[in-house]
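Why FxsC C-terminal domain-containing protein? Reviewers of the renewal asked for a concrete example.
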Amino acid sequence: MLYFFLSCAPDEDEIFVHRLHRDLSAEITRRIGAEPQQVVGYLDASGTANWPSDARAALSTCQTFIALWSAKYLGNDRCGRCWGIFADRLRADRSTGDRDADSMIPVLWAAADLPENALAEEDLDLRPHRTPNDDDLRILMRLRSHRPAYRAFVASLAHRVVETAHTRRLPPARLAIDVDGAVNPLAGRRFGHGDGHEATKVYVVIAAGTREQMRTIRDDLRFYGRRREDWAPYQPVAPQSLVARARDIVSDRRLQSEVVSIESVPERLRGGSRRDILVLLVDAWATRLEHLGRALREIGGRDDSAVAVLVPANRDDPETTAHRSELRREVLETFPGRSSWRDSLFRVGVDSPDDFDTDLSVAIATAQRRAYRRGVVEPQPGKGTRPVLEGP
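Here is what the prediction returned.
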Protein backbone atom coordinates (compact mmCIF):
# COMPACT_ATOMS: atom_id res chain seq x y z
CA MET A 1 0.00 0.00 0.00
CA LEU A 2 1.23 3.48 -0.86
CA TYR A 3 0.23 5.57 2.13
CA PHE A 4 0.86 9.07 0.80
CA PHE A 5 1.72 11.18 -2.22
CA LEU A 6 3.72 14.29 -1.28
CA SER A 7 3.19 17.11 -3.78
CA CYS A 8 5.25 20.30 -3.77
CA ALA A 9 6.35 23.05 -6.14
CA PRO A 10 9.83 22.87 -7.70
CA ASP A 11 12.66 24.84 -6.08
CA GLU A 12 10.74 24.89 -2.79
CA ASP A 13 13.55 24.42 -0.23
CA GLU A 14 14.38 21.00 -1.63
CA ILE A 15 16.57 19.95 1.29
CA PHE A 16 13.71 20.44 3.72
CA VAL A 17 11.12 18.85 1.44
CA HIS A 18 13.25 15.71 1.13
CA ARG A 19 13.79 15.74 4.87
CA LEU A 20 10.04 15.87 5.47
CA HIS A 21 9.48 12.98 3.06
CA ARG A 22 12.20 10.95 4.78
CA ASP A 23 11.01 11.70 8.32
CA LEU A 24 7.35 11.07 7.52
CA SER A 25 8.18 7.80 5.75
CA ALA A 26 10.26 6.65 8.72
CA GLU A 27 7.50 7.48 11.21
CA ILE A 28 4.85 5.68 9.16
CA THR A 29 7.13 2.66 8.71
CA ARG A 30 7.61 2.51 12.47
CA ARG A 31 3.89 2.79 13.15
CA ILE A 32 2.87 -0.01 10.78
CA GLY A 33 5.77 -2.28 11.71
CA ALA A 34 7.09 -2.48 8.14
CA GLU A 35 10.60 -3.22 6.97
CA PRO A 36 12.74 -0.08 6.52
CA GLN A 37 13.06 -0.69 2.79
CA GLN A 38 9.29 -0.70 2.23
CA VAL A 39 8.13 2.32 0.20
CA VAL A 40 5.24 4.00 1.99
CA GLY A 41 5.24 7.41 0.30
CA TYR A 42 6.01 9.05 -3.02
CA LEU A 43 7.65 12.47 -3.38
CA ASP A 44 6.73 14.39 -6.52
CA ALA A 45 9.04 17.38 -6.58
CA SER A 46 10.17 17.67 -10.19
CA GLY A 47 7.56 20.20 -11.31
CA THR A 48 8.28 19.38 -14.96
CA ALA A 49 5.84 18.57 -17.73
CA ASN A 50 7.24 15.04 -17.95
CA TRP A 51 5.24 12.46 -15.99
CA PRO A 52 7.22 9.27 -15.32
CA SER A 53 5.29 6.03 -14.97
CA ASP A 54 5.99 5.78 -11.24
CA ALA A 55 4.42 9.20 -10.66
CA ARG A 56 1.30 8.15 -12.57
CA ALA A 57 1.09 4.89 -10.62
CA ALA A 58 1.58 6.65 -7.29
CA LEU A 59 -1.12 9.22 -8.02
CA SER A 60 -3.48 6.43 -9.11
CA THR A 61 -3.06 4.34 -5.97
CA CYS A 62 -1.99 6.57 -3.06
CA GLN A 63 -4.30 6.61 -0.05
CA THR A 64 -3.67 10.22 0.96
CA PHE A 65 -2.48 13.32 -0.88
CA ILE A 66 -0.28 15.83 0.98
CA ALA A 67 0.14 19.22 -0.70
CA LEU A 68 2.76 21.70 0.52
CA TRP A 69 0.87 24.93 -0.04
CA SER A 70 2.62 28.11 -1.16
CA ALA A 71 2.22 30.75 -3.85
CA LYS A 72 4.61 28.69 -5.97
CA TYR A 73 2.36 25.67 -5.56
CA LEU A 74 -0.68 27.62 -6.75
CA GLY A 75 1.25 28.81 -9.78
CA ASN A 76 2.61 25.41 -10.86
CA ASP A 77 0.53 23.60 -13.48
CA ARG A 78 1.80 20.14 -12.59
CA CYS A 79 0.92 20.65 -8.93
CA GLY A 80 -2.54 21.84 -9.91
CA ARG A 81 -3.13 18.80 -12.09
CA CYS A 82 -2.00 16.43 -9.34
CA TRP A 83 -4.38 18.18 -6.96
CA GLY A 84 -7.22 17.90 -9.45
CA ILE A 85 -6.60 14.22 -10.22
CA PHE A 86 -6.68 13.19 -6.57
CA ALA A 87 -9.75 15.36 -5.93
CA ASP A 88 -11.49 13.53 -8.78
CA ARG A 89 -10.57 10.19 -7.20
CA LEU A 90 -12.30 11.31 -4.01
CA ARG A 91 -15.39 12.45 -5.87
CA ALA A 92 -15.55 9.12 -7.69
CA ASP A 93 -15.67 7.25 -4.37
CA ARG A 94 -18.38 8.62 -2.13
CA SER A 95 -18.89 5.47 -0.08
CA THR A 96 -17.35 6.98 3.05
CA GLY A 97 -19.05 10.37 2.99
CA ASP A 98 -17.19 13.11 4.85
CA ARG A 99 -13.93 11.17 5.08
CA ASP A 100 -12.76 13.38 2.19
CA ALA A 101 -11.40 15.74 4.80
CA ASP A 102 -8.87 13.18 6.00
CA SER A 103 -7.54 11.94 2.65
CA MET A 104 -6.63 15.26 1.02
CA ILE A 105 -4.17 17.03 3.31
CA PRO A 106 -3.11 20.63 2.61
CA VAL A 107 -0.10 21.69 4.69
CA LEU A 108 0.88 25.36 4.92
CA TRP A 109 4.45 25.49 3.61
CA ALA A 110 4.71 29.26 2.98
CA ALA A 111 1.84 31.63 3.76
CA ALA A 112 3.16 34.69 1.90
CA ASP A 113 0.90 35.82 -0.97
CA LEU A 114 -1.64 33.04 -0.50
CA PRO A 115 -5.26 34.14 -0.90
CA GLU A 116 -7.51 33.52 2.08
CA ASN A 117 -9.55 30.91 0.20
CA ALA A 118 -6.55 28.98 -1.09
CA LEU A 119 -7.06 25.88 1.07
CA ALA A 120 -10.45 25.01 -0.36
CA GLU A 121 -11.91 22.72 -2.98
CA GLU A 122 -15.40 22.74 -4.40
CA ASP A 123 -17.70 20.15 -2.73
CA LEU A 124 -14.82 18.63 -0.73
CA ASP A 125 -14.61 19.40 2.98
CA LEU A 126 -10.86 19.74 3.39
CA ARG A 127 -9.12 19.83 6.74
CA PRO A 128 -5.62 21.36 6.58
CA HIS A 129 -3.00 19.76 8.82
CA ARG A 130 -1.55 22.55 10.91
CA THR A 131 1.70 23.00 12.79
CA PRO A 132 1.50 23.46 16.59
CA ASN A 133 1.52 27.28 16.38
CA ASP A 134 0.25 27.70 12.82
CA ASP A 135 3.77 28.59 11.67
CA ASP A 136 4.86 27.94 8.10
CA LEU A 137 6.21 24.38 8.05
CA ARG A 138 9.38 25.34 6.15
CA ILE A 139 10.20 27.88 8.88
CA LEU A 140 9.43 25.41 11.65
CA MET A 141 11.94 23.00 10.09
CA ARG A 142 14.70 25.60 9.97
CA LEU A 143 14.71 26.45 13.67
CA ARG A 144 16.72 24.30 16.04
CA SER A 145 14.58 25.55 18.91
CA HIS A 146 11.47 24.23 17.14
CA ARG A 147 12.67 20.68 16.59
CA PRO A 148 10.32 19.23 19.23
CA ALA A 149 7.39 21.01 17.55
CA TYR A 150 8.49 19.67 14.16
CA ARG A 151 8.74 16.11 15.51
CA ALA A 152 5.28 16.47 17.03
CA PHE A 153 3.94 17.67 13.69
CA VAL A 154 5.45 14.71 11.81
CA ALA A 155 4.02 12.29 14.38
CA SER A 156 0.53 13.79 14.12
CA LEU A 157 0.68 13.81 10.31
CA ALA A 158 1.82 10.18 10.25
CA HIS A 159 -1.04 9.24 12.59
CA ARG A 160 -3.55 10.91 10.28
CA VAL A 161 -2.11 9.26 7.17
CA VAL A 162 -2.04 5.76 8.68
CA GLU A 163 -5.46 6.02 10.28
CA THR A 164 -7.01 7.32 7.06
CA ALA A 165 -5.33 4.69 4.90
CA HIS A 166 -6.51 1.88 7.17
CA THR A 167 -10.08 3.09 7.66
CA ARG A 168 -10.97 4.53 4.28
CA ARG A 169 -9.13 2.33 1.74
CA LEU A 170 -9.54 4.58 -1.26
CA PRO A 171 -9.72 2.34 -4.37
CA PRO A 172 -7.30 2.91 -7.27
CA ALA A 173 -8.33 5.20 -10.10
CA ARG A 174 -10.94 3.41 -12.21
CA LEU A 175 -9.37 4.50 -15.47
CA ALA A 176 -5.80 5.19 -16.50
CA ILE A 177 -4.87 8.69 -15.45
CA ASP A 178 -4.85 11.11 -18.37
CA VAL A 179 -2.39 13.64 -17.04
CA ASP A 180 -2.21 15.54 -20.30
CA GLY A 181 -5.95 16.08 -20.28
CA ALA A 182 -6.27 16.62 -16.53
CA VAL A 183 -7.79 19.90 -15.41
CA ASN A 184 -5.84 22.20 -13.12
CA PRO A 185 -8.52 23.54 -10.74
CA LEU A 186 -6.02 25.94 -9.15
CA ALA A 187 -5.31 27.83 -12.37
CA GLY A 188 -8.16 30.30 -11.92
CA ARG A 189 -7.55 31.11 -8.30
CA ARG A 190 -6.51 34.63 -7.46
CA PHE A 191 -3.03 35.33 -6.20
CA GLY A 192 -2.07 37.62 -3.35
CA HIS A 193 -4.80 39.12 -1.26
CA GLY A 194 -6.64 40.58 -4.24
CA ASP A 195 -9.43 41.99 -2.10
CA GLY A 196 -9.05 45.72 -2.60
CA HIS A 197 -6.75 46.26 0.36
CA GLU A 198 -3.25 47.61 0.00
CA ALA A 199 -0.38 45.14 0.07
CA THR A 200 1.65 44.48 3.18
CA LYS A 201 4.74 46.64 3.60
CA VAL A 202 7.58 46.03 6.04
CA TYR A 203 9.04 49.06 7.80
CA VAL A 204 12.57 48.44 9.11
CA VAL A 205 13.89 50.49 12.03
CA ILE A 206 17.53 50.46 13.12
CA ALA A 207 18.09 51.23 16.80
CA ALA A 208 21.87 51.62 16.82
CA GLY A 209 24.27 54.50 17.24
CA THR A 210 26.72 55.97 14.78
CA ARG A 211 30.42 55.37 15.25
CA GLU A 212 30.84 58.82 16.76
CA GLN A 213 27.97 58.29 19.20
CA MET A 214 29.25 54.90 20.28
CA ARG A 215 32.69 56.22 21.27
CA THR A 216 31.31 57.09 24.70
CA ILE A 217 29.74 53.65 25.14
CA ARG A 218 32.09 51.06 23.63
CA ASP A 219 35.74 50.40 22.89
CA ASP A 220 35.21 48.27 19.76
CA LEU A 221 33.72 50.53 17.06
CA ARG A 222 34.27 48.37 13.96
CA PHE A 223 30.55 47.46 13.74
CA TYR A 224 29.41 51.08 13.30
CA GLY A 225 29.57 53.70 10.58
CA ARG A 226 28.71 57.27 9.80
CA ARG A 227 24.96 56.53 9.87
CA ARG A 228 22.79 54.34 12.07
CA GLU A 229 21.98 52.27 9.01
CA ASP A 230 25.67 51.34 8.62
CA TRP A 231 25.48 49.06 11.68
CA ALA A 232 26.92 45.66 10.73
CA PRO A 233 26.96 43.58 13.93
CA TYR A 234 28.03 40.28 12.32
CA GLN A 235 31.39 41.46 11.02
CA PRO A 236 33.72 39.95 9.92
CA VAL A 237 31.68 36.86 9.00
CA ALA A 238 28.94 38.98 7.39
CA PRO A 239 30.23 42.47 6.52
CA GLN A 240 26.90 43.54 5.02
CA SER A 241 24.95 46.11 7.01
CA LEU A 242 22.08 44.65 9.00
CA VAL A 243 19.51 46.86 7.28
CA ALA A 244 20.64 45.63 3.85
CA ARG A 245 20.48 42.04 5.04
CA ALA A 246 16.99 42.59 6.45
CA ARG A 247 15.74 44.16 3.23
CA ASP A 248 17.07 41.20 1.23
CA ILE A 249 15.06 38.85 3.46
CA VAL A 250 11.93 40.96 3.02
CA SER A 251 12.48 40.96 -0.76
CA ASP A 252 12.87 37.17 -0.75
CA ARG A 253 9.36 37.01 0.70
CA ARG A 254 8.14 39.19 -2.19
CA LEU A 255 7.25 42.09 0.07
CA GLN A 256 8.20 45.75 -0.11
CA SER A 257 10.31 47.36 2.58
CA GLU A 258 11.26 50.84 3.70
CA VAL A 259 13.79 52.00 6.26
CA VAL A 260 12.32 54.53 8.69
CA SER A 261 13.67 56.35 11.73
CA ILE A 262 12.98 55.24 15.27
CA GLU A 263 11.58 58.71 15.97
CA SER A 264 8.73 58.01 13.53
CA VAL A 265 7.60 54.79 15.22
CA PRO A 266 5.00 56.23 17.66
CA GLU A 267 3.22 58.11 14.87
CA ARG A 268 3.30 55.07 12.59
CA LEU A 269 1.78 52.94 15.31
CA ARG A 270 -1.07 55.42 15.61
CA GLY A 271 -1.78 55.90 11.93
CA GLY A 272 -0.28 53.07 9.89
CA SER A 273 -1.99 50.61 7.59
CA ARG A 274 -3.71 47.67 9.24
CA ARG A 275 -1.48 45.34 7.24
CA ASP A 276 1.89 46.98 7.65
CA ILE A 277 4.63 45.26 9.63
CA LEU A 278 7.20 47.12 11.70
CA VAL A 279 10.51 45.42 12.50
CA LEU A 280 12.78 46.97 15.13
CA LEU A 281 16.43 45.83 14.95
CA VAL A 282 18.08 46.75 18.24
CA ASP A 283 21.71 47.02 19.25
CA ALA A 284 21.65 46.16 22.96
CA TRP A 285 24.34 48.80 23.53
CA ALA A 286 21.95 51.45 22.18
CA THR A 287 19.90 51.30 25.38
CA ARG A 288 22.80 53.19 26.96
CA LEU A 289 22.60 56.11 24.53
CA GLU A 290 20.33 58.74 26.03
CA HIS A 291 18.23 59.61 22.96
CA LEU A 292 17.94 56.04 21.63
CA GLY A 293 17.37 54.59 25.09
CA ARG A 294 14.53 57.03 25.64
CA ALA A 295 12.94 56.19 22.27
CA LEU A 296 13.24 52.45 22.93
CA ARG A 297 11.70 52.77 26.38
CA GLU A 298 8.78 54.71 24.91
CA ILE A 299 8.13 51.92 22.41
CA GLY A 300 8.69 49.21 25.01
CA GLY A 301 6.41 50.96 27.49
CA ARG A 302 3.51 50.73 25.07
CA ASP A 303 3.68 46.91 25.22
CA ASP A 304 2.61 47.10 21.59
CA SER A 305 2.34 43.83 19.71
CA ALA A 306 2.54 45.79 16.44
CA VAL A 307 6.35 45.76 16.60
CA ALA A 308 8.68 42.81 16.04
CA VAL A 309 11.92 43.18 17.99
CA LEU A 310 15.18 41.39 17.14
CA VAL A 311 18.37 41.97 19.14
CA PRO A 312 21.56 40.65 17.47
CA ALA A 313 24.46 39.64 19.71
CA ASN A 314 27.47 38.55 17.67
CA ARG A 315 29.14 35.56 19.30
CA ASP A 316 32.44 36.72 17.73
CA ASP A 317 32.27 40.12 19.44
CA PRO A 318 34.35 39.69 22.64
CA GLU A 319 33.19 42.97 24.18
CA THR A 320 29.51 42.14 23.74
CA THR A 321 30.06 38.58 24.95
CA ALA A 322 31.75 39.85 28.10
CA HIS A 323 28.74 42.07 28.88
CA ARG A 324 26.06 39.71 27.57
CA SER A 325 24.15 39.25 30.83
CA GLU A 326 23.91 42.92 31.73
CA LEU A 327 23.03 43.91 28.15
CA ARG A 328 20.29 41.31 28.04
CA ARG A 329 18.92 42.58 31.35
CA GLU A 330 18.86 46.13 30.05
CA VAL A 331 16.98 45.08 26.91
CA LEU A 332 14.39 43.16 28.92
CA GLU A 333 13.93 46.17 31.21
CA THR A 334 13.38 48.32 28.12
CA PHE A 335 10.60 46.00 26.91
CA PRO A 336 9.04 44.93 30.24
CA GLY A 337 5.75 43.74 28.80
CA ARG A 338 7.41 41.36 26.35
CA SER A 339 10.20 39.81 28.36
CA SER A 340 8.07 36.81 29.26
CA TRP A 341 6.73 36.25 25.75
CA ARG A 342 7.45 32.91 24.15
CA ASP A 343 6.96 34.49 20.77
CA SER A 344 8.86 34.59 17.50
CA LEU A 345 8.26 38.35 17.47
CA PHE A 346 10.63 39.15 20.34
CA ARG A 347 14.10 37.64 19.92
CA VAL A 348 17.01 38.60 22.18
CA GLY A 349 20.52 37.30 21.61
CA VAL A 350 20.36 36.45 17.90
CA ASP A 351 23.99 35.43 17.74
CA SER A 352 24.73 34.52 14.10
CA PRO A 353 23.82 35.73 10.60
CA ASP A 354 22.00 32.46 9.87
CA ASP A 355 19.96 32.75 13.06
CA PHE A 356 19.12 36.33 12.16
CA ASP A 357 17.89 35.31 8.70
CA THR A 358 15.72 32.58 10.19
CA ASP A 359 14.35 34.63 13.08
CA LEU A 360 13.50 37.58 10.84
CA SER A 361 11.78 35.31 8.31
CA VAL A 362 9.74 33.73 11.11
CA ALA A 363 8.82 37.13 12.53
CA ILE A 364 7.70 38.47 9.16
CA ALA A 365 5.66 35.35 8.38
CA THR A 366 3.95 35.47 11.78
CA ALA A 367 3.35 39.21 11.53
CA GLN A 368 1.98 38.94 8.01
CA ARG A 369 -0.45 36.24 9.04
CA ARG A 370 -1.71 38.26 12.00
CA ALA A 371 -1.83 41.50 10.01
CA TYR A 372 -3.83 39.90 7.24
CA ARG A 373 -6.31 38.27 9.59
CA ARG A 374 -6.92 41.58 11.32
CA GLY A 375 -6.69 43.73 8.22
CA VAL A 376 -9.65 42.07 6.51
CA VAL A 377 -11.96 43.10 9.34
CA GLU A 378 -13.51 46.41 8.34
CA PRO A 379 -14.43 48.99 10.99
CA GLN A 380 -18.13 49.08 11.68
CA PRO A 381 -19.85 52.32 10.68
CA GLY A 382 -20.22 54.76 13.54
CA LYS A 383 -17.70 52.99 15.78
CA GLY A 384 -14.98 55.56 15.17
CA THR A 385 -12.27 52.92 14.89
CA ARG A 386 -8.94 54.48 14.11
CA PRO A 387 -6.41 52.71 11.86
CA VAL A 388 -3.62 50.94 13.67
CA LEU A 389 -0.36 49.57 12.34
CA GLU A 390 -0.88 45.83 12.71
CA GLY A 391 1.87 43.30 12.43
CA PRO A 392 3.55 41.10 14.98
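The chain has two domains: 4-168, 201-375. This is the kind of structural detail the renewal will allow us to pursue systematically.
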